[in-house]
Amino acid sequence: MLGAALTLIFAGAALISFLWVPYDITQLDIANKIKGPSGAHPLGTDHFGRDILSMIMVGARTSIAVALVAVGIGMGLGVPLGLAAAAKTGSLLDEVIMRGNDLVFAFPSLLIAIMITAVFGASALNAIIAIGIFNIPVFARLVRGAALSLWTRDYVLAARVSGKGAARISVEHILPNVTNLLIVQGTIQFSLGILAEAGLSYVGLGAQPPLPSWGRMLADSQTMISFAPHMALFPGLAILLTVLGLNLMGDGLRDLLDPRLRRGAR
Amino acid sequence: KTDIVVAMQLEPPHLDPTSAAAGAIDSVLYSNVFEGLTRFGPDGSVNPGLAKSWDISDDGLTYTFHLNEGVTFHDGTAMDAEDVKFSLDRARAEDSANAQKALFSAIADVEVVDPATVKVMLSEPNGNFLFNMAWGDAVIVAPESIENIKQMPVGTGAFKFTNWVQGDNITLEKNGDYWGTPAKLDEVTFKFISDPTAAFAAVMAEDVDVFTGFPAPENLPQFEADPRFQVIVGNTEGETILSINNKMPPLDNVKVRKAIAHAIDRQAIIDGAMFGLGTPIGTHFAPHNPDYVDLTGNSAYDPEMSKALLAEAGFPDGFKTTLKLPPPSYARRGGEIIAAQLRAVGIETEITNLEWAQWLEQVFRGKDYGLTIVSHTEPFDIGIYARPDYYFQYDNKAFQDLIAELNKTTDPAMRTDMLHKAQTIISEDYVNGYLFQLATATVAKAGVTGLWKDAPTQATDLTAVYWAE
Amino acid sequence: MSLLEIEGLDLDIHGAPILRGVSMSVAPGQIVGVIGESGSGKSMTAFAVLQLLPEGAMCRGRVELNGHDMLGLPEPSLCRLRGNEVGMVFQEPMTALNPIKTIGEQVAETILIHEDVSKRAAMARAREALDRCELPGDRFPMSRYPHELSGGQRQRVVIAMAIALRPKLLIADEPTTALDVTTQAEILRLIRRLVEEDSMGCMLITHDLAVVADMADEIVIMRRGEVVEAGPTAQVFAEMNHPYTRALFEASGHQPVREAQTQSVPLLQVRDAVRDYALPRNRLFAPQDYFRAVNRVSLTIERGESLGLVGESGCGKSTLTRAILGLEELQGGEILLDGAPVFSGHQPNRAVRRRMQVVFQDPYGSFNPRWKVARLVAEPFHLMDARPADWRDQVAKVLEDVGIGADAMHRYIHEFSGGQRQRIAIARALILRPELVVLDEAVSALDVSIRAQILDLLAALQKDYGLSYLFISHDLSVVRNITDRVLVMRAGEIVEQGKTAAVFDNPQNWYTKKLIEAAPVLPDHGVAGGGAE
Amino acid sequence: MLRYALKRLVSLAISLVVASVVIFAMVEVVPGDPAAYMLGINATEETLNALRDQLGLNGTLLERYAGWVGGMLRGDFGTSYTYRTPVAEMIGERLWISLPLALFALTLSTAIAFPAGIWAASKRGSLVDTSVMGVTQLGVAIPNFWFAMLMVLVFAINLRWFNAGGFAGWDAGILPAMKSLTLPAIALALPQASILARVMRSSLLDTLGEDFIRTARAKGLSKRQALWRHALRNALIPVLTIIGLQFSFLMAGAIIIENVFFLPGLGRLVFQSISARDLIVVESVVMLLVFAVVMVNFAVDLAYAVVDPRLRVRA
Ligand SMILES: Nc1ncnc2c1ncn2[C@@H]1O[C@H](COP(=O)(O)OP(=O)(O)OP(=O)(O)O)[C@@H](O)[C@H]1O
Ligand SMILES: Nc1ncnc2c1ncn2[C@@H]1O[C@H](COP(=O)(O)OP(=O)(O)OP(=O)(O)O)[C@@H](O)[C@H]1O
Ligand SMILES: [Mg+2]
Ligand SMILES: [Mg+2]
């Protein structure tokens, strides 16, 4: 509940920011830089005099977009791979997919993300790709594991008796029954994606200015933390609360969806 | 107390000042470990170094240097004219890896007269020659120790190199056999702290005694307010400019460049990026130089005029270009501010943050950029505008002739005149957006005395530093 | 004097009533059989004795074990009693043992927990207990891990653990449900022997009436958390006071009314079928090894016939089924339906497949939980080139035929009980009006009363639809009641076949004999016997 | 057991080969010429070429790959372009910070997570459980570099209990060295400990629900005994996986944390070398880290076999 509420707050803030933000963040107001929270600026201003509340709202957009697309990449590629591997267990295809997964897992993900963005240039897009790549094996493994047990179910056998092929069964029978798992894992990867984006942006390899990003706000505020702690506090809290919200929501969803899944399929 | 910990942002890649551009090498070793024939004083003046005096022939083509006697390298070998010849010949050789080879291009020959006298023949007169010899790239090294110089630098200075923990620190100790005024400190540790936050924390926590080139101007007020510390703000030779690719349309249009210049609010940049540190400039010349002309009026902040100029140039709705930024915070922060200011007059910029290596590759060598921000820290470098292949790609015959003339001229008054002219030409051609002269801030513990205020060259000369009671 | 005395036991879990006024008693040397259908509270009664109840359970009433008031004792005292005075054996031998400890350690642990003896002494006594449970030391060293034992052997280890300290009471909760008939017979014999040797009391929980009929001195019949009837075995069987007891008894030996329809026209012919499974390679470049799951099996099903296939778990019954249905290709031999091969040119033959369908064992696992019944039942239409326009009507009709009603079409499968699901499974099998229906353990997972209804339904449908059945089961009594002919399979081969009655009454093969001997049978005296006439 | 190990070893070797190709390929497309970086703004083309030759940057791709891998097999990681010292030496030096840091963090996270996870699981639903779960939720969600920043602010700048960063050096003695690693290790360990504690708890709860626990209880073991003797080792299997994975997170997470605390460790070496286009260092360090991660996973696989006898036969 709390999780869903927190998530909604930030998703809502991101959405509202398309229509309205308290201040235009593309306008710098150097004269008003580094002001603590006040009536005019509830969360204060940053080193360029921008309104931190507005920055956080627009930054939520970046964080959510990056994490969402990265999860999308991971699901979009990982789910079919996992389904294929499960459909053809023990085959060469399965072996190749699983070894490939192991390989990606063997790389320290953040390190490689740093390499990727270092090689291809720092940008939100490359951050998405780097985070997305490491989502692929997560989903592939999850789906394969779940699908393997589903493949032993009698209803799959019944579908085969009805003359359906592996691809069709994967889509009609396996996929719908792993969606719950995907939703739960998706929320978790989503929150990890937000953390990863923040980390990459913090070291300067994520979203580039003028696109606001929570991670970069933290990086910018770092040298000012001793005299303007509000600049570091609020973006950090935004990350913390969003990730916390997503994790709580993931747990909640698991509790909500899992027993039904178990009851449905015994 | 006779030891000191001096922190700086960048670590030298290796310890041979004569084969790399990295200013960090000079920051540690210049004057402390290595010395040249001449040397820079704290005010930027050229003073005698290993050469106690010199004679210049009337045609300006022959320099005869008289060396100090009894000078030894740290490994005990004597420093004599042979070493000078070796050093200069090495720097100008075909396969030389000297990053500032141009400094030596005027030299035609070097001749050893006797162990204490060396004669340098030039191919044409050069008003800057003594100045050139003061650079860190022109220090005197010994053939005996050249092999391992990158790891084990052996010089003639008041300090001896002792140890290097890569990634962390370099230590020097007092040279007991120094030929000149001995150093007051017994031991010096240079610590490398690249991260501005860490820099702040390290000073605050008193992990270091001095931080030269303190990277976060926003923290200076706190140090100033704290009686434990002193803050020394000085000039550098760094003209911080918004470099413009003069060959890339529409930036090849002088009206467009002028529009850019008028769109920029220098003071906002100095306040926003440097927290007030820095002197506005209107041309590529250091304001503390006596030959400086204040031309900031040529590019006063005037967005309306800027818009008008853009419309005149055929871009009433503005245009789009790239803004590539190297790592220092003046560039990164300044870039964001400039982007916002340019956006206000209709010019959209796509910001790309680059590491130095990428910047050198893409911008400096590849000339693949529209705008960039960089500080040109070489002293007295207006001559770069005479190089059409330089990354601004500014090609003005009149200016090139002027500089060629200047190089040959030794008469001070005429030089001043020509320099004024040169500054005006580039300012009125709006070659680049001239922002501010980079300031340098040194934060030190209250008792530290004898530090340089300004930075006429990249050096941390500790030979006169001591702890006051 | 009784060993265990349960009186007026009420049990609630999180406020939901589970047990109501349960009373029973066990005397030393006595076996009390507790039976009842799934969910009737048998296991909970047992757990209440040990006080190992799930979280949120609340007990009232009186449970007295050898003079100890189990409901009143503090936890440490209960721990001293468990394993010492009362031992327990569980249903699932595969998961009841800790997979990462040796069997010796696990048996010795019972001793070490309760007695202050050296590890060596405990191990020696563990050895003894294993020996007593017919796991001799030369073949079953104590250093074995559970996964190195078969199900029956694991169950013996669990029993050894339970009796290591010669407890006064042994509670066995469905100790043989997961096992083969032959293994079941051995385990039951072992329990009986141990009870006699130590004159232990034994509470034997089962849902199989026949098992208790053989074993128990007294019977307690439970239903929905209540005891409906109790008394000495012979008396209960003779009197059957409660209608539920009668229904239970009747359903257990239920014989559906059916007429022989066999037309002596071969419908399905299997000739010399061979099915090999590739074994995982042990070494990288080792030659591929195979496991032969079906070895040169030949059989014929005639039109309108019900053919039974029996055999212990893992003998290859399901594998053969899959081959017949054209799901897997054979490595040798051929399978023909009405003369047409099931597989032609490495491709399953769709025209043949349409004429065969299957019903599986697990009513919970055979449906996609995310589909509605209409879509589920219509799935076999995929075998047609196009789904007929009136498919909804056809689904409705077949649902009516299996006694579910057409309004089920718009509901999800979790809204149905096990028995209803199995009816829907049959509807799905019938939707294409096949000629052959394979029933792979189709009634094994159902409670006896439901099982009886399904068997009746199958018999009726066979007549209406003119079906042939291949009826696979390990439950001999069911096979006996519903098939015309029977095949006995062992280790991938058919060892005996013939008319059902002939094979059961006069088995020729030693294995068939053993199988039939091992199967527990209901006494045929009493009301039930009368009722069947 | 041996066969199991051998099989793992083969797949390990394949992983490493593929990894080396991927890393090499990736690093080779990095724009930026190390020679240009080293010589700076005013270097001439000829000087650049001379330097490139010295650095061996002029060979074909295949030659360079073969040279790199061959060298590594011999323990020769090449010479850093910028520092002009053997990479192996640089790595060796940095390893003395990164490895202790990773181990310190790992020890810390295990030392926190195990008791917390076990405690929470054994008192499921209690106040203890709820608060452990609450704290770990926060721990998982907190960005560790932000946490590090806050810790520096509080413990180094305000309270001045610890140094704000930097490494005292092992020469200064174990204690000062450990002291400079303490804050970074805590920053690294906190999220890991939270994850580990959660995994430990849920894995224990799962195991506690298994049939064999009921068997053990029926034998007369108390709840505690059943947990310690039977559940714990079984629950360890997923926990081991996570510990193995965490190693890779610790290695990578260290890059950021080493930056916050300016520790001269491997992570910072990578960062510096990337910006300096010191390709050979990047390649070698990343390869080394991948090697370490692969080896740790191999060790974890072997640890499984020790914990779980079922794996010993299933070759
Ligand atoms: N942990 C639990 N929480 C809530 N209810 C439970 C729990 N365990 C069992 N029940 C309920 O208690 C009732 C009795 O269960 P019990 O396990 O005693 O049945 P049973 O007769 O042993 O059945 P079976 O033959 O399937 O083993 C069932 O309705 C079941 O749903
Ligand atoms: N896909 C497979 N790969 C390898 N071996 C298999 C495979 N499927 C089944 N087997 C093996 O073939 C043998 C026969 O299995 P099958 O499922 O046909 O037995 P069953 O008689 O149906 O047993 P049950 O009564 O338990 O259902 C078993 O030993 C089994 O281990
Ligand atoms: Mg039960
Ligand atoms: Mg079967």
TrEMBL record, chain A:
**Which spans are transmembrane here?**
6-25, 64-87, 107-134, 231-250
Main localization is membrane
Which domain of life, per UniProt?
Bacteria
Mention one GO biological process in which this protein takes part, according to its record.
transmembrane transport
Q: Which UniProt keywords apply?
A: Cell membrane, Membrane, Transmembrane, Transmembrane helix, Transport
Where can this protein be found? Cell membrane
Output the Pfam families linked to this UniProt entry.
Answer: BPD_transp_1
Matching entries from PROSITE patterns are given as:
ABC_TM1
For this protein, the record's InterPro entries field holds: BP-dependent_transpt_permease, MetI-like, MetI-like_sf
The way it spans or sits in the membrane comes to: Multi-pass membrane protein
Of the GO CC terms on this record, one is:
plasma membrane
Record-annotated ABC transmembrane type-1 domain positions: 60-250
The record's comment on protein family reads: Belongs to the binding-protein-dependent transport system permease family.
Q: What is this protein called?
A: ABC transporter permease
From TrEMBL, chain C:
A GO molecular function assigned to this protein is: ATP binding
Q: What is its main location?
A: membrane
Coiled-coil regions listed: none
User: What InterPro entries does this protein's entry cite?
Assistant: AAA+_ATPase, ABC_transp_ATP-bind, ABC_transporter-like_ATP-bd, ABC_transporter-like_CS, Oligopep_ABC_C, P-loop_NTPase
| Any Pfam family hit | ABC_tran
> What UniProt keywords apply to this chain's record, in alphabetical order?
ATP-binding, Nucleotide-binding, Transport
Q: GO biological process: what's one of them?
A: peptide transport
Q: Name one GO cellular component term.
A: plasma membrane
The molecule here is called: Dipeptide ABC transporter ATP-binding protein
**Whose protein is this, by species?**
Marimonas arenosa
From TrEMBL, chain D:
Locations listed in the record: Cell membrane
Where is this chain primarily localised?
A: membrane
Q: Which GO terms describe its molecular function?
A: dipeptide transmembrane transporter activity
Write down the Pfam families for this protein, in alphabetical order: BPD_transp_1, BPD_transp_1_N
* Entries under PANTHER family matching the protein: DIPEPTIDE TRANSPORT SYSTEM PERMEASE PROTEIN DPPB-RELATED
Similarity comment text for this entry: Belongs to the binding-protein-dependent transport system permease family.
What name does UniProt use for this protein?
A: ABC transporter permease
Organism, scientific name:
Marimonas arenosa
